[in-house]
Amino acid sequence: MSRIDNRKDLLLLLLYLPGQTGKLCAPVRGRTRLMKLLFLMEHEINLPKMLDIRNWYEFEPYTFGPFTHEVFEDIEFLQNVGLIGSSTKGPSSIVESEETRRAIDLELQEFGEPQADAEEQDPVVNEEVYALSSKGKAFVEKRLLASLDPSARKAIAAMKTRAGSLTLSSLLKYVYTRFPDFTSRSELNHFRP
C-alpha cells in the first residue's frame, strides 16, 4: 500500500471512480472538463489539503477560466507510462478546440518557437476522452484505493457525477459563477456573472 501524496494520484483516482453512469473507470470527456474537475477538487472539496498532496496544480485565470499547463504535462506523463489512454470522439466544442490551441501555443513559447498562424492551424480539433488503461486500473486498485480516505473517495465520486452530468457549457457557467476571480482573462464573457 502506498500513500496518496501527489497530484497524479488524484488524477488517476478521478478517472477510476464512478461518474454519472455509476460504473468504475468512467472516462472523462475533454481536456476542458478534466481541467475544471481538477480545479473543483481543490476549490470545492479541498482534497489537496485534506490529503496533503504535494505540488498541487497552480491554476490561474486564463482564456477559458481556471487553467494550468501542468494538467497537460501530467496527462502526457501518465499516457507515456501506460496508465491512461485517450481516444477521440468527433469534433470538440469551440472552447475545447481553443483551449487545445492555447496549450500548444504555450508549449511552443516555452521552447522559444513562434506561435502558429491562424491559417496554419487545423480548424477542427477532435475531443479527447480520457480513461484508465487496464494497467492504470490495476495500479489504482493495488496501490491507491486502500490509502484513500472514504470521505475523500465519496467526495471525488460525487463531484465527478455532478460535474460529469453537466454539459460543458453548463459546467463552465457553474465555474464562472462560483469562482469569478478565475475568469478575469476569459474570452467567454457571456458566462461571467
Provide a short characterization of the protein structure.
With 193 residues, the chain is an alpha+beta fold. It has eight helices and five strands. It has one domain (7-191).
What does this protein look like?
The chain has 193 residues and is an alpha+beta fold. It has one domain. The chain has eight helices and five strands, in the order αβααββαβαβααα. Strand 2 and strand 3 (65-67) form a beta hairpin.
Q: Tags for this entry?
A:
5 strands; 3-stranded antiparallel beta sheet; 193 residues; alpha+beta; 8 helices
Low-pLDDT segments: 118-124
Distance between the termini: 45 Å
Mean pLDDT: 82
Overall morphology: globular
For the secondary structure, the number of strands is 5
Write the layout of secondary structure elements.
Layout: H1 7-16, E1 28-29, H2 31-43, H3 47-50, E2 60-62, E3 65-67, H4 70-80, E4 84-91, H5 94-110, E5 126-132, H6 134-144, H7 150-164, H8 168-178
Antiparallel strand pairs: 1-5, 2-3, 4-5
Helix pairs in contact: 1-6, 2-7, 2-8
